[in-house]
Amino acid sequence: MEEKVKETKEAAKPEKREWSSLEHYQKIGIIMLLVVIAGAFGWFWEFLLAEFEGGFQHFYVTGGNLFPWMNIYAYGAILILAICYRFRKKPWLVFLSGAIVTGTLELIAGWLVYTIGNGTRYWNYNVKWYGWGTIGGFVCPASIIAFGLGAIMVTYALMPWLIKIATKMSKKAFLTLSITLFSIIMIDDITNLALKNLSLPTGQDLYRAMGWVEGWQNP
Questions:
Q1: What is the pLDDT of residues 23-81, one digit of tens each?
Q2: Measured between alpha carbons, how far is 104 from 101 in angstroms, rounded to an integer?
Q3: Coil, strand or helix: which one is 75?
Q4: What are the angstrom distances between the C-alpha of 139 and each of 59, 69, 120, 142, 167?
Q5: Nearest alpha carbon to residue 158 among 20, 70, 30
Q6: Which helix (H) or strand (E) element contains residue 61?
Q7: Which of 3, 102, 111, 163 is deepest in the core (most CB within 10 A)?
Q8: What is the distance, to the nearest Å, from the Cα of residue 171 to the centroid of all Cα atoms in its chain?
Q9: How far apart are CA 100 and CA 16, in angstroms?
Q10: Of the ranges 11-15, 64-68, 199-203, which one carries the lowest mean pLDDT score?
Q11: Sign of CA dihedral 63, 65, 67, 73
């Protein structure tokens, strides 16, 4: 009798889905939402950091789009999913691999923008109080540690939540949600990139016209 009760309780427990057991549409939708959420988190993180550094005296431009979203954080989240998520049974390895992978992304991206853009910088750790040990102003130990913690957040908080959403919602509702949000962000990103290349006003210019200042220039 006790064994039957135990079996009934076990059967009643909600099924914990793993990434490998998801259907293709669920994985695609999760990746889309991961891009949206990670990019939005990055924007708000840098906005709050700029506000703190600037003494909350101004609103600060973070990113180049109209909507609050930064592409490099989205790229980092995708790399974490592709490379670090497989180590989720070992948190220390998720942290270490995440710090290395995303730190390398930041270093390469910063160097490419600086080299191709003839000295253009979207961020500069040389002028930051936490930028000790920086490499060319492109990456520093503090940012690498933060990215490692970000990998922990993606792996143990965001991904389980997204998997739960993907498995609880109907296929139509989940795809409608993920495709809609992803499309809005991508259209905004591509449009602003095109406008910038054509030397036309972008979302960033709109913020400047409203009195916002460059967040990355704060010492």
A1: 999 999 999 999 999 999 999 988 888 778 766 666 766 667 888 899 999 999 999 99
A2: 5
A3: helix
A4: 24, 20, 15, 8, 38
A5: 30
A6: strand 60-61
A7: 102
A8: 25
A9: 29
A10: 11-15
A11: negative
Residue whose C-alpha is closest to residue 155's, from 72, 89, 103, 73 = 89
Tell me if residue 104 falls in helix, strand or coil: helix
Given a contact cutoff of 8 angstroms between Cβ atoms, the answer to whether 14 and 154 are in contact is no
Please state the pTM of the whole predicted model.
Answer: 0.85
- Pairwise CA distance, residues 192 & 202, whole Å: 5
Spatial contact of 46 and 215, defined as CB atoms under 8 Å apart: yes
Look up residue 111 and give its amino acid: W
Amino acid 191 reads T
Angle at 107 between CA 106 and CA 108, to 5 degrees: 95
CB 138 within 8 Å of CB 114: yes
Residue type (1 letter), 168: K
How far, in Å, CA of 9 to CA of 58, rounded? 56
Give the torsion sign (CA, 136, 146, 97, 110): negative
Domain boundaries, the chain: 24-52+62-71+78-180
| Cβ atoms within 10 Å, residue 124 | 17
Q: CA nearest 41: which of 19, 17, 73?
A: 73
Amino acid at position 193, single letter? L
Taken in order 158, 216, 97, 185, is the CA torsion positive or negative?
A: positive
